UniProtKB/TrEMBL annotation:
Gene3D superfamilies: Divalent-metal-dependent TIM barrel enzymes (3.20.20.150). Signal peptide: none annotated. Residues 22-274 form the Xylose isomerase-like TIM barrel domain. This is Sugar phosphate isomerase/epimerase. It comes from the Bacteria. It holds the Pfam family AP_endonuc_2. The keyword Membrane does not apply. It comes from Humibacillus xanthopallidus. One of its GO terms (molecular function) is isomerase activity. SUPFAM superfamilies: Xylose isomerase-like. Transmembrane segments: none annotated.
Amino acid sequence: MSLRFGYGLNGFTDHRLSDALAVLADLGYDGVALTLDHAHLDPFAPDLAARTAAVAALLARHELGVVVETGARYVLDPRRKHEPTLVSDDGRERRIDLLHRAIRVAADLGSSAVSFWSGIAPAGAGPGECWARVEEGVESLLPVAESRGVDLALEPEPGMFVERIADVLELRRRLGSPDRLRLTIDVGHLRCTEDADPAACVLGAADLVANVQIDDMRRGVHEHLPFGEGEVDFPPVLAALSAIDFRGLVAVELPRHPHAAPALAAASLDFLRDAERRAQVDRPHRRPQEVAR
């Protein structure tokens, strides 16, 4: 099975959306990861439904798939990066509102998942309080996601309260393992924070994986790097994604490189296709010791 490669539009913020989609389609990408932000689809500007329909038409014209991302830096607060979050002391309802909007947009665009994260734990909030806040927020979103047929793909993020795959599994346990609560894997994050190697993490997570971001990274350093500049061994990761029969987009995540987007997108796709060819030589079988659901 050939993987479907996409590119994160948070790495194309110097381009108009129509131009970015044309460039990526011409390069041969299968889809895009669309971050809801002022650059391409502002979730808080007027006429969201009409603007979403226009984006859907652009995607259809270029035959591109899409997954919706919600990691915009200043979409909720122009002064505080990524705030408020699901674990913030105040303003959590604004994050919930953004995620409600993202679910509706995802359904209208044909995205099977909305990717999101927990946020950084405030200094005065202990683990018990943070778990309660995340549980409350996600629990309120699950009926909306179910009604729209969209998965909530929680991303473990270095430095955030939900930082590792084990934290996502713990949240699922606390909420009764809801079908719609699944996992976003960022391959670079696996190298940065997880104890197991990235390919083993993919095989262990198996059917919980709803969304994949891919980039290079070094152990212990949360910096999204172009392929070949970090420590990730990519052919085993792509082989693992193939082994678990992952059907979503595997989207390049380079949000700090918009200045070089067209050239970097071209080089990234060449790299991934070459890594996929090498992965076919040694495709693993799914391991029996998969994570607990």
